[in-house]
């Protein structure tokens, strides 16, 4: 049996984080290793927990998801982490 895909959920809304946690944890082969409410927390937790994937909200306090993604993917220790950006905003600039 292979190891589960390790997921970090980063969203400033607790209800959405909790919903994503339930969805991910109930999917065979996936597990949530942490939750972040800010972009800065996402960066710190990515370095601490070394997830395989980060579900990253675009707009968060302290540091937006775009900058947090740059810091996660650009750092030596977390360069292999993949980030899936999430947004409810329909703005071409975020794409």
TrEMBL record:
Q: What is this protein called?
A: Response regulatory domain-containing protein
CDD domains the UniProt entry points to: REC_NarL-like (cd17535)
Which InterPro entries has this protein been placed in? Answer: CheY-like_superfamily, NreC/VraR/RcsB-like_REC, Sig_transdc_resp-reg_receiver, WalR-like
Keyword Transcription assigned: yes
Task: Provide the positions where the record notes the PTM 4-aspartylphosphate.
Answer: 57
Q: Which UniProt keywords apply?
A: DNA-binding, Phosphoprotein, Transcription, Transcription regulation
Residue ranges annotated as transmembrane are: none
PANTHER family the UniProt entry points to: TRANSCRIPTIONAL REGULATORY PROTEIN NARL-RELATED, TWO-COMPONENT RESPONSE REGULATOR
Q: Domain of life here?
A: Bacteria
| Residue span(s) of domain Response regulatory | 6-95
